[in-house]
Design brief:
two-stranded parallel ribbon; 8 helices; about 400 residues; Outer membrane efflux proteins (OEP)
Length: about 400
């Protein structure tokens, strides 16, 4: 895919990423067009209340005798069994639903953007961490090599240390490849080439929310509620098939063999139509509309319950992730302290290789766990905001 990425790549902050997404994101642009289309659909529904005007003109020739005519006609639907009225209500509800859909789409886009931003930032920090680990592993290899050459360590321990260094080299190489993919993902979302992501602020866990308030104000709740309302309007609209229709029409027409034609033929009519038995289709349509309305009500009830559960689940996941991050930070500090003591004791011959290596590997794993937990906490924060239709601004 060729992006509008001719501009030079740059480091970006989260606020800058949000601003760029609002301007450039393709999914948001598409959703905005859907909203615009719904606005025009509502305007169009009002045209059913306006008169229909037309003009016609003709010129002909028969056996050498010319004929001319022109005329105007107007028609107005006076009553269509409330179909026009319910049509406007349906279009208005459809527009409201599209507005809610736009908000839901924005929440989805902002979550995808936040996730992509987090992934890039995570890989950047992961590379910095792996460089640190590789430096540590290289230092360990140099230490064990000296001890092996002096006869203080065996070859198996030397090879184990060298293997750890090789693994660290591979991990770093793989992470650098991941970096290019993460940059591409974020760049495509923004339609702007990005080189790196700036650091994020600490995780913010809000106080226990009012789930009921968040539920009814969320776009997904409104979409489902409006779908039920639209099905209800369709059911009401189906009564039109059981009611008569009334319309008024008039015409003004001039015709003759000369131009301009002088013979006038004006008319008007008031028409009443009542299809009292169109094969029973009107009755079936009404039954089907009622079934659709009842189904929409059940769908709304289920979606409401699912969303209520998702809100609490996402909030509790954020709290869990935040607390897990705090635990891993404390664990990392303890592992670092133990690793420094163990290394000094190993150099002085107070502990053997296996004990020193075990404690050192615990410290390395604690570094990785802390970074992974930080990523999960960032993602949990983003998911919490997405669930109620918001975003981390």
């Amino acid at each position: 895919m060729v992006l509008a990425l001719g501009l030079p790549a740059f480091a970006i902050t989260w606020k800058e990423a949000v601003a760029l997404a609002e301007k450039n994101n393709l999914q948001l642009k598409s959703a905005a067009k859907d909203l615009e289309s719904s606005e025009w659909s509502l305007k169009r529904s009002y045209t059913n209340f306006l008169p229909q005007l037309s003009f016609s003109a003709s010129k002909g020739d028969s056996a050498g005798v010319g004929s001319y005519s022109y005329g105007f006609s107007v028609s107005e639907s006076l009553f269509q069994g409330f179909e026009n009225l319910y049509g406007v209500q349906y279009s208005a509800s459809s527009l409201d639903q599209q507005r809610a859909s736009w908000l839901s789409t924005r929440a989805d886009v902002m979550y995808a953007l936040r996730s992509a931003y987090i992934e890039l930032l995570y890989i950047q920090e992961k590379i910095a961490l792996l460089e640190k680990i590789l430096k540590e592993r290289t230092s360990n290899t140099a230490l064990i090599t000296l001890r092996y050459e002096s006869g203080k360590e065996d070859k198996g321990n030397l090879m184990a240390t060298q293997s750890e260094q090789k693994q660290a080299e591979y991990d770093l190489s793989a992470a650098r490849r991941e970096l290019d993919l993460a940059r591409l993902n974020l760049s495509q979302l923004l339609q702007q080439e990005v080189k790196e992501a700036e650091a994020l602020s600490s995780i913010a866990v809000p106080p226990l929310p009012d789930y009921k308030v968040l539920l009814i104000s969320s776009p997904d709740y409104q979409i489902s509620e409006l779908a039920y309302k639209m099905a209800e309007i369709n059911y009401k609209k189906s009564i039109a098939g059981l009611l008569p229709s009334l319309s008024l029409s008039a015409s003004y027409r001039n015709s003759g063999s000369d131009w301009p034609p002088a013979a006038q033929n004006n008319s008007w009519s008031l028409s009443l139509s009542y299809p009292f038995f169109p094969g029973g289709s009107n009755l079936i349509d009404r039954i089907m509309a009622k079934v659709d309305m009842e189904k929409a009500q059940q769908d709304f009830n289920k979606n409401r319950d699912d969303l209520r559960y998702s809100l609490q689940d996402a909030y509790e996941a954020l709290v869990d992730a935040s607390e897990s991050l705090a635990v891993s930070e404390f664990s990392l500090a303890a592992s670092l302290e133990r690793a420094e003591i163990s290394r000094a004791r190993y150099i002085n011959g107070l502990v053997n290789y296996d004990e020193w290596s075990r404690i050192d590997n615990i410290y390395i794993q604690a570094l990785k766990t802390q970074l992974s937990n930080k990523k999960q906490a960032w993602l949990a924060e983003a998911l919490w905001h997405k669930t109620y239709g918001g975003a981390v601004e």
